[in-house]
Amino acid sequence: MTDQSDTPTPRQRVVRVTGSRRARLTPVPGSDPEPESGPAAMPPRSRPKGGKGPNDDQLIQDVPPHY
């Protein structure tokens, strides 16, 4: 004896995504599927005080490979 009612509760389903290795879940009923946004305003990156070197502009534009 299990406690099952006549009407099943809606559940998340697994949805296959074509061309992807990962599946996706449908949103939980009654939830907001949109993720929360991050901080309203990120402060700009501060530059170090002092003189500007010959390659400072290039170093600031470079992005490490793990990003």
Write the layout of secondary structure elements.
Blueprint: E1 14-15, E2 24-25, H1 56-61
Question: Could you characterize what this model shows?
Answer:
By secondary structure, the chain is mostly loops. 9% of the residues lie in helices and 6% in strands. The protein has a two-stranded antiparallel ribbon with strand order 1-2. Strand 1 and strand 2 form a beta hairpin. It is elongated and about 75 Å long.
SSE string, helices as H and strands as E:
EEH
In what order do the strands lie side by side in the largest sheet?
A: 1-2
Number of DSSP E strands: 2
Q: In percent, how much strand structure appears in the residues?
A: 5-15%
The end-to-end span amounts to: 53 Å
Instruction: Find the structural class using helix and strand composition.
Output: little secondary structure
What does the overall shape look like? Answer: elongated
The number of distinct helices, counting runs of at least 4 residues, comes to: 1
Round the mean pLDDT to the nearest integer and report it.
Answer: 76
Q: Any low-confidence stretches, pLDDT <50, length ≥5?
A: none
Radius of gyration: 25 Å
Q: What about the largest sheet?
A: 2 strands, antiparallel
How helical, in percent, are the residues? Answer: under 10%
